[in-house]
């Protein structure tokens, strides 16, 4: 960069004061300051854009590497799954009758049967006084009927 010391700035200010004059010097200084600020902002924007494009390229490279790693993992999983299927089919090739060897439904593994209970009958057998004390709802209402039942009554007053 340009090496500007205090002596050089004083020399530039003295020349500007003589050339431009004391009346126009503040206006010219403001204009030069504004132009320098715009130039600095432009340079900063260009730097930011270059950094963004470099980051974008790095992210694309990273995305490609992650996708290739995912494809490798997927292919290895599929390969091991096919190997497992092959060994499973070889291991179970001799077994044809599962029920004859003690499968589901044989004496070793009985089939689950749901108990014959009617829970509604048990609820109905509960006495009414117990339901009232326990807070069991015996009569159901729709939502609209419940809102209408508990809505505060309008009070009519004469004026």
UniProtKB/TrEMBL annotation:
<keyword id="KW-1133">Transmembrane helix</keyword>
<feature type="region of interest" description="Disordered">
    <location>
        <begin position="133"/>
        <end position="159"/>
    </location>
</feature>
<dbReference type="Pfam" id="PF02416">
    <property type="entry name" value="TatA_B_E"/>
</dbReference>
<keyword id="KW-0811">Translocation</keyword>
<dbReference type="GO" id="GO:0033281">
    <property type="term" value="C:TAT protein transport complex"/>
</dbReference>
<dbReference type="InterPro" id="IPR018448">
    <property type="entry name" value="TatB"/>
</dbReference>
<keyword id="KW-0813">Transport</keyword>
<dbReference type="InterPro" id="IPR003369">
    <property type="entry name" value="TatA/B/E"/>
</dbReference>
<feature type="compositionally biased region" description="Basic residues">
    <location>
        <begin position="148"/>
        <end position="159"/>
    </location>
</feature>
<keyword id="KW-0997">Cell inner membrane</keyword>
<keyword id="KW-1003">Cell membrane</keyword>
<keyword id="KW-0812">Transmembrane</keyword>
<comment type="function">
    <text>Part of the twin-arginine translocation (Tat) system that transports large folded proteins containing a characteristic twin-arginine motif in their signal peptide across membranes. Together with TatC, TatB is part of a receptor directly interacting with Tat signal peptides. TatB may form an oligomeric binding site that transiently accommodates folded Tat precursor proteins before their translocation.</text>
</comment>
<dbReference type="GO" id="GO:0008320">
    <property type="term" value="F:protein transmembrane transporter activity"/>
</dbReference>
<dbReference type="GO" id="GO:0043953">
    <property type="term" value="P:protein transport by the Tat complex"/>
</dbReference>
<keyword id="KW-0653">Protein transport</keyword>
<comment type="subunit">
    <text>The Tat system comprises two distinct complexes: a TatABC complex, containing multiple copies of TatA, TatB and TatC subunits, and a separate TatA complex, containing only TatA subunits. Substrates initially bind to the TatABC complex, which probably triggers association of the separate TatA complex to form the active translocon.</text>
</comment>
<protein>
    <recommendedName>
        <fullName>Sec-independent protein translocase protein TatB</fullName>
    </recommendedName>
</protein>
<keyword id="KW-0472">Membrane</keyword>
<comment type="similarity">
    <text>Belongs to the TatB family.</text>
</comment>
């Amino acid at each position: 960069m340009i090496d500007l010391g205090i002596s050089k700035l004083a020399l530039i200010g003295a020349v500007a004061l003589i050339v431009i004059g004391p009346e126009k010097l503040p206006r010219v200084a403001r204009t030069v300051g504004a132009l320098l600020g715009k130039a600095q902002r432009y340079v900063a924007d260009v730097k930011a854009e270059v950094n963004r494009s470099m980051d974008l390229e790095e992210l694309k490279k990273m995305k490609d590497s992650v996708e290739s790693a995912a494809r490798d993992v997927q292919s290895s999983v599929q390969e091991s799954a096919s190997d497992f299927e092959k060994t499973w089919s070889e291991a179970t090739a001799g077994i044809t009758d599962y029920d004859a060897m003690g499968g589901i439904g044989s004496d070793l593994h009985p089939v689950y049967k749901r108990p014959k209970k009617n829970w509604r009958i048990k609820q109905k057998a509960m006495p009414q006084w117990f339901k009232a004390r326990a807070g069991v709802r015996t009569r159901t209402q729709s939502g609209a009927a419940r809102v209408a039942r508990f809505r505060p009554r309008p009070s009519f007053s004469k004026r």
